[in-house]
Design goal:
The structure is a homodimer. Chain A has about 140 residues and is of the alpha+beta class. Chain A has a single domain, classed as Nuclear Transport Factor 2, Chain: A (Roll). In chain A, about 25% of the residues lie in helices and about 35% in strands. A six-stranded mixed β-sheet of chain A has the order 2-1-6-5-4-3, covered by helices on one side. In chain A, a hairpin with a 2-residue loop joins strand 5 and strand 6 (about 115-125). The longest helix of chain A has 14 residues, at about 5-20. Chain A is globular, with a radius of gyration of 16 Å. The interface of A and B includes residues 94, 103 and 119 of A.
Chain lengths: ~140, ~140
């Protein structure tokens, strides 16, 4: 069984991101048209296009050093959601000016051979106090 | 059984938003510390604070006219995720300048008396072409 727990599949996902390994990334995802990605600044991507996206990014040399902090687990017998906070690092990121934290949601589903990733979604964290101009909200 | 399907619970959620009904909203959510909300510009809110948030917003007269379009359903025997696109309207929203679409993720879990909402998460949709200043990304 490749990923006996949701956490094993999640570790596989971040390991694949860090190594830029498209084949390892493909093994993490469920082989189904249901899989979906909601990455920052990107439209919803579903099905085989999810693996195409990662393969394209990795083929351009992309690799991501992401520090993960777990905020919550919501689980059932055959699905699991992990809410996390991602801190993106790496050699392109200035140590004194790290990018803002990003919320991440990973949804896993149990199949006949273990757990696989079916949805990865990012959301922005709220702006820090003072980071937004004062005034009424738009609209 | 109050919500025999995930879709019934989702309809209950948007109906409660539209009517600004805190009691109806409370019935939609699972009675557990696991529940969580990731709303735009807001930190992660978990457990009883989720219902406190809605009660507080509704007590200030907030109500939301949200048009929903389903993008995907990812389901299992006892959990279900609906990926949707939300268009927020209402009397405060100028018809000629609607706010951008927002992605929404609703996670439902089946309990002894039916399906309840356990997670509501929003993500921004990507900016429209031409909406961002040209130039390299920050960092």
């Amino acid at each position: 069984m490749p990923f006996p727990t949701p956490q094993d599949a999640e570790d596989g996902f971040y390991d694949a991101l860090e190594s830029g390994d498209a084949d390892a990334m493909a093994r993490v995802w469920e082989a189904s048209p249901d899989i979906a990605c909601l990455l920052p600044m990107t439209p919803l991507i579903q099905g085989p296009a999810v693996l195409d996206l990662w393969r394209s990014m990795f083929s351009q040399g992309a690799a991501f050093d992401i520090q993960v902090r777990h905020l919550a687990w919501i689980e059932s017998a055959d699905m699991a959601v992990h809410l996390i906070e991602e801190q993106i690092g790496g050699h392109d990121v200035p140590a004194d000016r790290p990018p803002p934290l990003v919320y991440g949601t990973n949804l896993f589903r149990r199949g006949p051979d273990g757990w696989r990733l079916v949805l990865h979604q990012n959301s922005p964290t709220p702006p820090l106090p003072g980071a937004m101009p004062p005034g009424p909200p738009p609209g």
